[in-house]
Amino acid sequence: MIATANLDLWRAWKEEGDLEAKKRLIEQFLPLVDYVTNRMAIGLPKNVLKDDLASNGVMGLIDAIEKFDYCRGLQFETYASWRIRGSIIDGLRQGDWVPRSVREKAKRIEEAYQSLEQKYLRSVSDAEISEYLNVSEKEFTTMLHEIAITTVCSLEDPIREEESETRLSLLIDERAKNPDHKAHEFFLKDSLVNGIEKLTEKERTVISLFYYEELSLSEIAEVMSLSPSRISQLHSKAILRLRGALAKHKDQLLQH
Predict the structure, then answer these.
(1) Total of domains in the chain
(2) Residue 173: DSSP 8-state
(3) How high is the pLDDT of residue 243?
(4) Which of 34, 62, 94 is the last residue of a domain?
(5) Which stretches of the chain are DSSP H helices?
(6) Which residue has the higher pLDDT, 4 or 139?
(7) Are residues 66 and 109 in the same domain?
(8) CB 163 within 8 A of CB 73
(9) pLDDT range class, residue 42, cuts 50, 70, 90
(10) DSSP string covering 52-84
(11) Do 31 and 19 contact (CB within 8 A), yes or no?
């Protein structure tokens, strides 16, 4: 729920167009930008400056304040966090921060998980993935390390390139949806749930702690008594499995 003091600011901004109220809201929620920026900076290349991430994040915060409907009684912090993340990701995409070769490796592994897990109807091992890719398990581990930076934000990529709706946004009800959209959303959520069920126990734990408990990868490493690099590998494998499951869902939709 929105605090009474904030409610007065929201009313002044939304109903009266009070720019001073908007400015105060921006100042009040600026720490959200720092929080999201610090989390997303983990695992990114050193040439990606945190100040650049923060600048894009501020634009996301302003966008959130302009679009937020305070009358619905939703928590602004949750809504704004997604908008801030989205704005930062847009900035990263425009900067083309991931080399094409790394994107291609990520795509190969994603397709391997999708193909093998659809074939065997279970979680497949590193050895099976390595054999499918015709690489050694050591080479597969190296590939996971290289693509780790592409998976930190990948659940927030658009479901389709021409759409703005993201995979994780399906877990947040931002606005009322029509029945057709609701049906699509139901099956997509179902695919996501099924994908999560096929993750290994450690992978599920990493996903839960990172996306729902909002721990950093280094904090998860401490909780699970594993090295940060191992946590990064688990995160990458989990994301690629989920992306494969969601790609399968999209293919099924297109067939109908």
Answers:
(1) 2
(2) -
(3) 83
(4) 94
(5) 4-16, 19-41, 50-67, 76-94, 100-120, 126-133, 137-151, 179-197, 201-207, 217-224, 228-255
(6) 139
(7) no
(8) no
(9) low
(10) HHHHHHHHHHHHHHHH--GGG---HHHHHHHHH
(11) no
Asked if 44 and 29 count as a contact pair (C-beta separation under 8 A), the reply is no
Structural element, H or E, at residue 186: helix 179-197
Question: Which CATH number does the domain housing residue 222 bear?
Answer: 1.10.10.10
Residue 141 burial (C-beta neighbours within 10 Å; 0-12, 13-18, 19+): middle
If asked whether residues 190 and 245 sit together in one domain, one would say: yes
Residues 11 and 131 in one domain: no
Token pair of 200, please? 């290994």
CB 65 within 8 A of CB 26: yes
Could you report the per-residue pLDDT of 56-115, keeping only the tens digit for each? 999 999 999 999 988 887 788 988 988 898 888 888 777 666 677 888 898 899 999 989
Q: Which amino acid is at 52?
A: D
Give dist(CA 64, CA 82) in Å, integer. 9
Task: Report whether 159 contacts 166 (CB < 8 A).
Answer: yes
Q: Looking at the predicted structure, is the pLDDT value of residue 184 above 90?
A: no
Range of the domain at 45: 4-94
Report the percentage of the chain scoring pLDDT > 90: 29
SS3 166: strand
